[in-house]
């Protein structure tokens, strides 16, 4: 099924460099030493574990499991069977966390064992035609101190991530996250990678008033200037074989980005999130990701 045209979504397809200039990013650096899967022994447990295995292979990481509950012979055997089924090392570490609240237990284990990325099922439900995060997944997105990868429909035999959307800002953290996302895209033989910026009516109004920058507040940009800034951000990452489109998305609400993700039938949405002195922040135009999940989601911290 092809991409549906929409006048709100304007794009520039950037040229790919020749292969002789290409440097595989992931081969020399992995952002994650330890990846853990949040285990609940739900009907989709093996599927989520299989998706986590793929991420372990992509990033060259150590894969662990987190289980909130008692370490009994039964749970030990369940993990042993699952590891054997997926041909994972039989001695893969399982962190058992006591407590009645799964979200609290997982968050505590992430901090105690210095996990770099947590993988979980999104546990979504359909409400008013939008898939909403389950409670555990929502708390991981909002509160985990590590990166988070959520799968809406995990597969025992994971499907390639053919279309990836990256929500860009112009920070150093976002640039590092962009490189990591490109590395995964290359490993997945991604067919199309979208670097996206949301351009709101407020941004347009500021630009029309010729608002000057004040302090740390960036100067207002016209839509055309925003397109140029986004293209510069993409090109700053260096050569890649991944086909990239830089897109500025017009919209009055944050859901414009969610609508775009769905319009291109994306398999993965990547969102860099970083902290400032006042703590971690979700910009208004992407605050919707703490509740709504249009596809698989990767929060890069």
Characteristics:
301 residues, alpha/beta, Rossmann fold, 2 domains, 11-stranded mixed β-sheet, two-stranded antiparallel sheet, 15 strands, elongated, disordered N terminus
Describe this structure in words.
The chain has 301 residues and is an alpha/beta fold. The protein has two domains: 158 residues, Rossmann fold; 127 residues, HUPs (Rossmann fold), CATH 3.40.50.620. It contains nine helices and 15 strands. Strands 1-11-10-9-12-15-8-5-2-3-4 form an eleven-stranded mixed sheet, sandwiched between helices. Helix 3 links the parallel strand 3 and strand 4. Helix 4 packs parallel to helix 5. The protein starts with 8 loop residues before the first strand and ends with a strand. The N terminus is likely disordered.
Strand order of the largest sheet: 1-11-10-9-12-15-8-5-2-3-4
Gyration radius, to the nearest Å? 20 Å
Helical stretch tally: 9
CATH architecture of the largest domain: 3-Layer(aba) Sandwich
**Uncertain regions: pLDDT < 50 for 5+ in a row?**
1-9, 16-28
Sequence-ordered SSE layout with sheet pairings:
Elements: E1 9-13, H1 25-28, E2 34-39, H2 45-59, E3 62-68, H3 73-85, E4 94-97, H4 102-112, E5 117-121, E6 125-127, E7 130-132, H5 135-143, E8 147-151, E9 163-167, H6 172-187, E10 192-199, H7 201-208, H8 223-235, E11 244-250, H9 255-263, E12 268-272, E13 275-276, E14 279-280, E15 296-300
Parallel strand pairs: 2-3, 2-5, 3-4, 5-8, 9-10, 9-12, 10-11, 12-15
Antiparallel strand pairs: 1-11, 6-7, 8-15, 13-14
Helix pairs in contact: 4-5
